[in-house]
Amino acid sequence: MKEDGKILTVKCPRCGVLTRWEGNTHRPFCSPRCRNVDLGAWVDEEYRVPDDSCPEDDESDLSKKYQKTSKWS
Fold it and tell me: How many CB atoms lie within 10 A of CB 17?
């Protein structure tokens, strides 16, 4: 409990239900189900971080690259 006697509650990141922080073995989730559903989302790559550092494939660049390769002997 917090010093002022109030119970700290947080929203479950999966379902949004308010849940106790202290004593919750599944925190920040409200239940093992929400924890496992979230883990499954990570495994299925549902969460992605945008990456602008990787340029788009450009077919003109590929054709130049393959023109420079030596022929098979």
Answer: 13
